[in-house]
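name: query_chain
kind: protein
chains: 1
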Amino acid sequence: MDQLNIDFKESIPVAQLGIIPLESSRELGQKVNEYIVSWRNDRLSTNQGNILFENYKKDTYIIDSKCSRFGSGEAKGTIYESIRGKDLYFIVDVTNYNVKYKLCGYENRMSPDDHYSDLKRLIAAAAGKARRINVIMPFLYESRQHKRTSRESLDCAVALQELKSIGVDNIITFDAHDPRVQNAIPLSGFESIQPNYQFIKALFNSVDDLIVDSDHMMMISPDEGAMSRVVYYANVLGIDMGMFYKRRDYSTVVNGRNPIVAHEFLGASVEGKDVIIIDDMISSGESMLDTARELKKRKAKRVFVASTFGLFTNGLESFDKAYEEGVISKILTTNCIYQTPELLSKPYYVNVDMSKYVALLIESLNHDRSISELLDPSDKIHRLLKKYNNR
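structure:
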């Protein structure tokens, strides 16, 4: 809290703050709001009498809003408070399938397309009256369709250009499947943030007997796409890394993709070492569990899985079985997207809470301060590692 006072007490906000969490992100939005309310109430500033600090301290910064649906499934977005001149932050989880609506008497679960449409509706409801519009979309909409390999749609690029065209100034996402998709809007604000510090902190808090050195621990990339993430962790922790690559059958397509024939490993021996598999998402989990089994075959000691987004599209049974068999020890995913009560109750699951980090991002941007230190937490990780080793 002292650091927050030092950082912001002399700063002037861009405009009055407004947070609009969509139904898909109500819980995360409420936690973010509570942090900001607490920080601002405790903060002492020499500029409190300045007109620019009008309504700086409030009981809540959440703007009352709603997306209502007609019986036909059509919808409208409504904002129930004045947002003129405000710095607005929309928070949306496009993967939250637990949000439902009625369609011609049937109950429908909302898809990513539905959540994205609701986001556009509420931005349209702002009607250009806000000072600045920012979108926090932890799981980037259509980020898995980010490149063209044949006659295909470029959905993510189209969505980014569409958001820009309706007035969005900044887009903040976490661990984009391929951050190069920002090239679709090169003159707009776009940040793909890695929750590196939060993962390491959560792992250290949940496992108290790790030995963090090259003789006892190793970072693993499950495929070539996660290499950059794993290289960062390995360098900042001072340990070795290894990589699997997926040998696929390109003559066959199953569920929209080429099936994996084998996982080939590149790297030093993992025998007797704790290994941490890092990736951006767990979808069905099949590939991740195959990687974990391959590591156990190579006599790895314990296998920890860390992934920003835990979708678990095929349920948790395969993970339960892997835990019972000793294939995995812990699974860490963030609360940026919907987590089922069943997942939260699992003995192997570690919830990585991102609400404080999101609140700090919003607070920094609202004060027009650099977020460079938030994007590269190397120093914080080194301090955390030193504290853990001296425990």
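note: The CA atoms of residues 9 and 44 lie 6 Å apart.
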